[in-house]
What we know:
Purple Acid Phosphatase, chain A, domain 2
Amino acid sequence: MTRCLLAADLHGKAGRYSKLFExxxxxHPTAVFLGGDLLCGPLAELADxxxxxSDVFVAGFERLRHRMxxxxxAVFLVLGNDDGRYHEQSLLDxxxxxxxxxxxxxxxxxxxxxxxxxxxxxxxxxLLKDWERYDVSRYVDPGxxxxxxxxxxxxxxxxxxxxxxxxxxxxxxxxxxxxxxAVFLFHAPPYQTNLDRAALDGKMVDHVPLDVNIGSxxxxxFLEARQPLLALHGHVHExxxxxxxxxxxxxRTHLFGAAHDGRAGACPLRFGRSSRRVxxxxxxxxxxxxxxDGRRSGALQAELHHFGALVDAGFVRxxxxxxxxxxxxxxxxxxxxxxxxxxxxxxxxxxxxxLLL
Length: 357
């Protein structure tokens, strides 16, 4: 069984990365997906006397690779709207050395699956615009700052800031590819799902109520139209706490969110069956032959954890027995949604597992 780990919105916190590295060593995943907002942010880096990128982020993965040897996983990452783009060239250079696979705007292979990455989010109230782009039009929500305003750590053509959209980017990225076995690693979640619920209830700007769903319309439309196998997301920290779940579904596409929110946030995923042979190249492509027959209807297992358990105490297993739709007993699997009787809050040490058929 291919075991994969997803984490996002760690925001340059060394303690969170220490626990992440420990968990990778313990779990021995085939792949790790990092969904953006991974670093300290440009202003925080200027104020910090240390060098998080080199001393914690890069050095941590290098030590992990040295300790794990051939068991070191394929690491796929994208940046997020709080990350400075000035680190992009370093990420590409280190990717060429096999430390990870920088996925933004690229297609890569992992077993029988294709992996696509995309960093941009719709306009936000924040001033850093390295990874913000108009969504489906030049509309900007009340209280948000246009991609044409704010500031950037690297320069781009003014016409790109003015006219580029997430919708057009995704059309170009996917082209005419068959996405039935595709995994998309986004920073932004799709609009009006369990993954994009923000704590904006009752908030107004100039007497205009704010939308509590802040995900991307373009991402949602893309997923609905193209139906990849999996979509992995971050960005909206409090969404899982407010909705009580890290997952959703658009048609056949299963969505998972891992935005860190203190006690809850990342979800290790386990899916597929693989021979666990991964090779890399300087172009950033990863090749591995998978023992699966590739049929979309095959069983897909996804293992979800609160990141609070990962950060505070490591993995804690609480297996229960449930039944799948065919009535078969599934020992050790929990339903991914909280029971209706439970309040929409997350217990930091509870493990959730989901069987997707």
